[in-house]
Amino acid sequence: MIKVAIIIGSTRPGRNGEAVARWVRDLAIKRGDAEFELVDLKDFDLPLLDEVLPASMGRYDLPHTRAWAAKIASFDAYVFVTPEYNHSTSGALKNAIDFLYGEWHNKAAGFVGYGVNGGARAVEHLRLIMGELQVADVRAQVGLSLFSDFENFSVFEPAAHHEDAVGTMLDQVIAWGGALRTLRERQAPVE
Ligand SMILES: Cc1cc2nc3c(=O)[nH]c(=O)nc-3n(C[C@H](O)[C@H](O)[C@H](O)COP(=O)(O)O)c2cc1C
C-alpha cells in the first residue's frame, strides 16, 4: 500500500486547518487501500528558509531540514490541507515546501482548500508550485466554505456532500501515487 501524508497547511493559533485535516484523515482511514498519516507543520517548527544552499543542490545542513526531509521522503503522495490567505496558500506551507526539492519529485498530490470561496485560489497557486516540483496534482479537489461548512467561521461542520469529494480526490491520489511509485522504482529521478 502507498503512504499518503495529510499535511496541515496552517500553523496559526486557533487554526481551522487542524479540524479539517483530522476530518480528511478520519474519512481516509476507513478506505483501507492506503496508509494515511497526519503531518503537522507545527511539529517541525521550521524557521523561514535558512539553508545556505538551495534545496535543488541536494545538501541539507540543518537538523530541522533533515527531519522535515526524512518525513516528506517517506511518503508516496500528499494531501495538502490549505487555508487561503490573501488569495494564496499560507506562507508557512510555501516555506515548508521550499525547504525541500527531490523529496517531492514524482509523487502525487491532492488538495483540500477552505476559505470564502473554498480556498480555490490557494489551491490554484499550489498547483503551479507542484509543477515545478514534479508533483502530479490530481483534478479532483475539495473546497470548503467558511460560510456554509463552519459555524461562526470557526467550528467545522462540513456539509455531507463533501465526503464524496474527499473520496474522489483520494481515489485519484492513490491511483497516481501508486503509478508514480512504480516509476520511481524503475527510473532515476528526472532532475
Ligand atoms: C492573513 C489572512 C488572509 C486571509 N485572506 C483570505 C483570502 O484571501 N481569501 C479567503 O477566502 N479567506 C481569507 N482569509 C480567511 C481564512 O481563509 C480563514 O481565516 C481560515 O480559517 C484560515 O485558516 P486557518 O484558520 O487554518 O489558519 C484570510 C485569513 C488570514 C489570517
Overview of the molecule:
- One of its GO terms (cellular component) is cytosol.
- The chain is an alpha/beta fold and 191 residues long.
- The protein has a single domain (3-186), classed as 3-Layer(aba) Sandwich (Rossmann fold).
- 38% of the residues lie in helices and 23% in strands.
- The chain has 6 helices and 7 strands.
- A 5-stranded parallel β-sheet has the order 2-1-3-4-5, with helices on both faces. Strands 6-7 form a two-stranded antiparallel ribbon.
- The protein is globular, with a radius of gyration of 16 Å.
- The mean pLDDT is 97.
- Bound molecules: flavin mononucleotide.
- The site of flavin mononucleotide has 14 residues, from loops.
Morphology call? globular
Write down how many β-strands occur, each being a DSSP E stretch of 2 or more residues. 7
The low-confidence parts are none
Ions, cofactors and other ligands present here are:
flavin mononucleotide
CATH topology call: Rossmann fold
- Measured as a percent range, the helix fraction is 25-40%
| Radius of gyration, taken over Cα atoms and rounded to an integer in Å | 16 Å
For the biggest β-sheet, the strand order reads 2-1-3-4-5
What's the main sheet like?
Answer: 5 strands, parallel
Name the helix and strand elements from N-terminus to C-terminus, one letter apiece: EHEHHEHEHEEEH
Number of helical stretches of at least 4 residues: 6
User: From the coordinates shown, what is the CATH architecture?
Assistant: 3-Layer(aba) Sandwich
According to CATH, the homologous superfamily is: Flavodoxin domain
Beta content comes to 15-25%
Average pLDDT, all residues: 97
- The CATH class: Alpha Beta
Number of domains: 1
Q: Name the structural class.
A: alpha/beta
End-to-end separation:
26 Å
Main location: cytoplasm
InterPro entries: Flavoprotein-like_sf, FMN_Rdtase-like_dom, NAD(P)H-dep_reductase
Subunit structure: Homodimer.
GO cellular component, one term: cytosol
